[in-house]
Predict the 3D structure of the following.
Amino acid sequence: MRLLAPAALGLAFLALPLIGLLVRAPWATLGDRLQDPSVVQSLRLSLVTASTATIASLLVGVPLAWVLARTSFLGRSFLRAFITLPLVLPPVVGGVALFLSLGREGYAGKVIDDWFGITLPFTTAAVVLAQTFVAMPFVVISVEGALRATDSRYDEAAATLGASRWRTFTRVTVPLSLPGIAAGAVLGWARALGEFGATIMFAGNFPGKTQTMPLKVFLALQTDPDAAIVLSLVLLAVSITVLAALRERWLTGAGV
Amino acid sequence: MKPNRVFTVAVVVALPLATASCSSDSSGSDKSTLTVLAASSLTEAFTTLETQYESDHPDIDVVFSFDSSATLAEQVTQGAPADVLATADEDTMKTVTDAGDAAGTPQIFTTNTMVIVTPPDNPAGVTDVSDLANSSVKLSLCDETAPCGSAAKELLTLDHVNATPVSFEPDVKSVLTKVTLGEVDAGIVYASDAHTAGHDVSTVQITNADQVVNSYPIAVLKDAPQPAAAQDWVDLVRSSAGQKVLANDGFGAP
């Protein structure tokens, strides 16, 4: 019982702002507002980019987490702190940093532009890059935690039985830490879906190309707060549906 | 990239954040605070006037929140405690007066026209507004939800230029940031912003710019904690000294 009171307080604190959205929502015109094709367009773009960013974060983030959890080298704790940097960096600053590195005038972006003729800013790819930049730390940190929690002796047993490092990783390490990977993916996806600052800086805002739901919400807020509330609710409803469905499938599937 | 450009970008990005976040601070222990909400384009002019105001009113600390006019108006109508509101257009101010949140009638204190800015070396060779229709010119405009966006659109229509930007920015400082970073070839901003950016941009005049003039209203707010000090601020801005500072920053006469 001593735990229930603070738990209820925590829940209330999270729920209060959301109730505010529900109370202010223009329910009478909700149907009409959802008919707007630009809403569907932004929502689709958000789902596609956030999912792509999550996959990208997993592809490089899980191996990175493995390096942090299973190897030992000088400066590892520094590396871990470095990886969490995007979490503390204001997203707008992250967007500027992406410009200064991967932008048309950035030190790396200039090379990409000259050699391959690819200009990243203001493209859908730039949205994915901005989202991956902010989402990957969540994946790395959760997966590292999961890897540390699993017994590394299973890895060693596989190795003594002759499995290569790659085979051990794919057949033993990853399946054992699947719940942690799923949790990291969910966190990363949610963070990518809500990404605003780095996106509007690095990818700009163009309907159908880089205008994700958070950008659309922010701009709607300037002229039509009711529309902004409707858009926020749509984003919330879709993310809750997806997260609940995935949790059901992944986490129970992994035996948790 | 030259260091001074990086610095300007950092200031342009950081200043609204810093000033917005410290608006509840009071630096002096026995000073009272005058809170001024102002459109982003007024950042430099108002910050200059702050020095003069505070030397005339040693007991008052002026704190600013610079943001897009629409965001500020929304904050006021939602009850944000502030003394003075200065917006970059009359429509946004009207939402505040309609809600009954302004004391008295807002006064037009300055005007602003639109110009094209490019990176200093003008990589796309923009010399006229008609060049913006060229699809190889990466253009950044304000979104139509911001006054700078509707003004730019009106002007482009007036000049029969059909331009497709790569991005619709939420406010004019974001357009400027993208130009000073060299990530777009051109942007349409207020003359005052081009003036403030100085050598970080090249400026190209727009045909018929004098047909699309943004008027800036200023008002003391109804629930101002410091109504007298707020009126003093409005008077300073409208005084010849205030007008001189605004003119120095590229603004026009009211």
